[in-house]
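Task: sequence design from structure.
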């Protein structure tokens, strides 16, 4: 039974439709085309975030989560581009709403990003996101077959128990440390809600980047499966507040010391600690209004 679960397509209907055109290409050409798209997504995301320092482009392209992402031609790097685009167009309600709807329809774990819109009082954008989500699913599921929806839900339930132990989620770390599944889920959810509370508080104070960062953290904390390439998403908030090369940009290089999957507890702890340091640094440098920190104001590398 494990083989069908492992080999099954685990994206929602919208994701299936977006990937389907690649099936019309010869297998090798489809692989290379999608790999090149994932490779291009990273510099494109940095460009959207107005990064001009070429050294940042160079170091990010050798981050382990980025390398793992394009090696496996995973959609995560395209999600990174989407999150960067959502930030860039955050004050255009229809655009950011459509982008977030598409992100959530492809990967459900990004749902907490919608709370960023609430935290920053972008209610029109939230409405557009909700409407677009309904429309996309109303189109996609009938094409795929509405009867596939219950099967998709059962697939997720069958896949999650095994997958959650081999990645870099907080839940996985807690399970490795001897927590029961119920207590691991409860603690991860509590911390995710705490992150959301921080995000709402930051948003109400006008700290746009703090709100977005907290909701992105909540997405990772609440997900039972965080594959190594998911950690590339920390690039977005770091690029917002650190437009010049500085030591924190090198922190993800520590992840070369841990495996792609099936890590032991200390390896999970190292990966999560590196990400936590980046996030903490983002919060310390974030300023109200979503503006950049001192790097951009002084034009120096720290």
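Answer:
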């Amino acid at each position: 039974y494990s083989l069908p679960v492992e080999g099954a397509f685990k994206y929602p209907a919208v994701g299936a439709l977006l990937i389907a055109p690649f099936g019309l290409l010869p297998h090798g050409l489809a692989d290379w085309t999608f790999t090149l798209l994932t490779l291009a997504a990273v510099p494109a995301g940095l460009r959207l975030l107005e990064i001009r320092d070429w050294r940042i482009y160079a170091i990010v392209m050798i981050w382990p989560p980025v390398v793992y992402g394009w090696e496996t031609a995973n959609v995560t790097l395209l999600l990174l581009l989407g999150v960067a685009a959502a930030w860039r167009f955050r004050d255009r309600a229809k655009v950011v709403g459509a982008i977030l709807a598409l992100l959530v329809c492809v990967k459900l774990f990004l749902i907490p990003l919608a709370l960023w819109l609430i935290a920053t009082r972008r209610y029109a954008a939230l409405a557009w996101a909700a409407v677009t989500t309904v429309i996309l699913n109303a189109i996609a599921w009938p094409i795929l077959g509405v009867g596939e929806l219950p099967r998709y839900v059962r697939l997720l339930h069958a896949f999650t128990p095994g997958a959650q132990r081999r990645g870099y989620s907080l839940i996985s770390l807690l399970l490795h440390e001897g927590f029961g599944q119920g207590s691991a889920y409860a603690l991860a959810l509590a911390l995710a809600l705490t992150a959301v509370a921080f995000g709402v508080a930051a948003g109400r104070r006008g700290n746009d980047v703090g709100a977005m960062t907290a909701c992105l953290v909540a997405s990772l904390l609440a997900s039972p499966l965080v594959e190594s390439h998911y950690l590339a998403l920390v690039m977005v908030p770091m690029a917002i507040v650190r437009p010049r090369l500085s030591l924190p940009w090198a922190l993800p290089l520590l992840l070369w010391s841990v495996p792609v999957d099936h890590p032991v507890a200390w390896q999970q702890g190292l990966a999560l600690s590196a990400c936590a340091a980046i996030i903490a640094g983002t919060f310390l440098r974030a300023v109200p209004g979503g503006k950049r920190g001192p790097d951009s104001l002084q034009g120096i590398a720290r």
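The chain is about 65% helix and 0% strand.
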